[in-house]
Sequence to fold (354 residues):
Amino acid sequence: MPTPPLDLAPITRHLRAMAGSRILITAVHHIPVFQVLQNGPKSLADLAQHLGLKERPAMVFFPALCALEMLAFNPEGNLTLTPLGRYLTQTQQPNLVGYTGLEKNDPGVLALTELLMNDGPKDTTNGVTYVKDDDAPSPMDDPEAARFLTLALAGRAEYLARVVAEKLPQRNGHLLDVAAGTGFYTYEWLLSNPKATATVFDRPEVLKVAKELLDIFRKSGRNGAAEVRQRVSFMPGDMLTDELPAADLILAASLFHDWPTKTCIYLTQKFARALKPGGELWVHDAFLHDSLDGPLAATDYSVMLFTGTKGRIYSRQEHREWFSQAGLISTAENFPTLMDYNLISARKPEYRIF
Ligand SMILES: C[S@@+](CC[C@H](N)C(=O)[O-])C[C@H]1O[C@@H](n2cnc3c(N)ncnc32)[C@H](O)[C@@H]1O
Fold:
């Protein structure tokens, strides 16, 4: 029996743990959530309004504080202080307000506070990492930045690709790997599905890197790797504005988490249109609990994405709402892969139901 691959989650969890520390210090010293909740529980929306937080930062900040065990949802669904969280208020004596205050001027904490209060950076004229839209020139269209950002994801994608390929449907037909980056998920899936074909869709500068990586993959000496190239098309384009090719399977890997909710809804509808009847949309990502109170690996990751992209981590329920609004039928299944990522899917009905 082959040995299961080592899960590299401890590395990604430690990498992202600084996000949780900063959220904690921000909450005690800059966005006074503990002070407000001393006076009693509040709904997430009321608390966000009270603190001046818009929807996206609120959906990052409060789940992170729950995962850190400082806040919790009470049986009425309102946010409340936990016994630990009370030690971050002045009414509890003694408390750790002063002690955590030693770090309150850490530059990372101050920068995160500003981003939370402003729902992202004030100046976005230089574009946003991993995002190409009409708001600003994209780093994904700058040769040097696109290469750097794409290669930064290469090790992660290459390591995850075998497990993802194993858990995706094994079938013939056409896979559209949208916003594919390196394309590793596609190359690996084609290797285990020798009659299937695929489109790797991304920005032109990203695809230059993807083609180089396919060249290396193809020369790996693995059985069947040499002929994968003949079954892949590279399609440069803009997934927001260009027509997408028809597909039996669409893979959206680490895609939705770069975008705000309204773009996720728009993209899901676009993907649903590109699917052939009976086709399936597969999402590979980390997910918040539907109860929005963790897990810590996902809330830390969400803070990192919030600071660097236009998105955040969403729950499976949020994804499934987008799926059903787009006429797709969600499955209840969840397939963990590695590094706190999971696969979920939805199917386009064979026949349109009027
Ligand atoms: C976080 S990366 C994910 C890459 C890959 N799916 C993975 O999991 O490794 C997001 C990708 O979305 C691509 N992207 C961003 N905006 C896009 C757009 N409007 N059209 C096509 N691709 C886009 C970026 O170029 C980048 O490769």
About this structure: Strands lie at 71-73, 79-81, 174-178, 197-202, 232-236, 247-253, 275-285, 329-330, 335-336, 342-347. The pocket of S-adenosylmethionine is lined by residues 130-132, 140, 150, 153, 157, 179-182, 202-203, 206, 238-240, 253-255, 258 (CB under 6 Å).
